[in-house]
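Exercise 7 asks you to align residues with C-alpha cells for two separate proteins.
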Amino acid sequence: MDAVWRDFYALMNALASLPISIAVAVAGHAPAGRTVLALFCDWRVAAEGDSKIGLSEVQVGLPLPPVILSALRRLVGARPAERLAMTGLLVSPSDAAILWLMDEVVSAEQVVDRAIKWCQYLLALPQAAMNLTSR
C-alpha cells in the first residue's frame, strides 16, 4: 500500500506541475481516485448519463488527505468542497458541472473529441501569455 500511495502522490504532483495544460475526458464512473486525478487537470469534460463523480473516501473510512482537499477547494470553493469531502457525496455529471467539479458535460460520443477541442483552442492562444497566466 505504501508503494501505491507513493506512486499516486507522484502522479498528482506530476499533473499539478506540468508546464502544459491537461484536459481529461471522464467517460463513466469516477469515484475516489478518478475524481482526484481530474482535480489536478485543467479542464474536465464528463459524459452525460447515470455515472457518478466524487470523492467517496469518507464512505469507506478513509480521511481525505489535505493536498486533495486543497485541490478540491481551489476548484469548487470552500463550502461545496466541505460538503463533497465530508459526506463522500457522489453526484451525476450534470450536478458535478453545476458544482464546478466538471467543466462541461457532453454526450458519451463527444467526450474525448471535446477534450481534444479544448486543447486545440489553447494551442491557438498566444502561448507566452497563456503559459505565464496558467503558472
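Second protein for Exercise 7:
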Amino acid sequence: MITDKRVQVIFGLFIWTGLYASLIPFSEWLVALLPVEGDSHLGEAIAFFVYDAPKVLLLLTVVVFVMGIINTWFTSERTRALLAGRSLGLANMLAASLGVVTPFCSCSAVPLFIGFVQAGVPLGVTFSFLIAAPMVNEIALTLLFGLFGWKVAMLYLGLGLTVAILGGILLGKLHVERYLEPWVQNITKKDVSFESEARSLEQRLEAGYAAVKDVVGKVWIYILVGIAVGAFIHGYVPENFMASFMGRDAWWSVPLAVIIGVPMYSSAAGIIPVVQALLAKGAALGTALAFMMSVVALSLPELIILRKVLTVRLIAMFVSIVALGILLVGFVFNLVL
C-alpha cells in the first residue's frame, strides 16, 4: 500500500520536473513583460537572475531532500565508529568520502573534532574528513553537474577527494598531535560503537522534508544574494576585464583567486552562481573553481571555530595544505579544460 508520504514524493517529483522543464520559457516570458531592452546591461542582468534563481533553488531542493534521506544512515556517532580502528590510508579515503555525504558544517567542527579524538580516530584521518566536508559537498557537486556537466563535476570530486586524502595523510605523518590545544590532548579516549537505528521509509522521507525545511530555509537568502552578484557581473562587467586577471593566460590568476576567496564567507550554493557569471565573462574554469573552493573550504568563520581546539601553528599547517590543494585543482582544470 502506498502511504501518504510516498504519494507526496511522487507528486512532488512530477511538479519539480514540470517546473524545471519550464525554466527557459518562463524566464523569457517574464523578461519580455518588463519595460527593459533585452540586450541592455540591465536586461541581461535581469534575465540571468530570473533564470538562475529558480534553477538553483530547484536543484538545491531536490539535492537536500535526497541527502536528508541518505544522512539518516550517517549520524556523527556512526561516522566516528566507521573511522575508528581503520588502517591509515584506507581510513583517510573513507573519511574523505564520508566528508562528502555527511551533513556537517563549520559550526559542527569543534564537537566533531572532540568526538573523533575520543573515539581514537587518528588526527590525520580526522583532517581528511574536515578538509573534504566543506571542500567537496553534495550541493556544490550537484550544482556543478547541473550547470557545467558531469565531466566538470567528476573532476572536481576526484581532485577534491585527492586533496583531502593526501592532506590528511601528510598531517598524520607530521605527528601534529603536539599542536593540539592542551585540553584536547588530555581528552580521555573511549570506545565508540554504533547500533543501527531502524527507521521506516516514511521516517526517512520525513527526514528529507525536514532537511529541505532546515537547509533551504537557512540558505535561500544567501543564494539569491549570490545570484544577484552573478547577475550584476553578467550584465555589467566587460568580458575583457574578467579575462585580464582571471583568464587562462594569467598564470597568477589562480593564487590571486585563492587569496581573494579566503576572507570571504559563503555557502557553496551561494557562490556557484557567482562562479557561473565569472565564467561567462571570460574567467578560466580552474581559476573560478579555485575561488569557489577557497571561499567554502578556507572560510574565516571555520578557522576561528577551529582555533578552540587547534594551535595557531596547526591551523597554519592546515590552511597551507588545503590552499596548495586548491591551487593544484585550479591549475589542473586550467590545463586540461
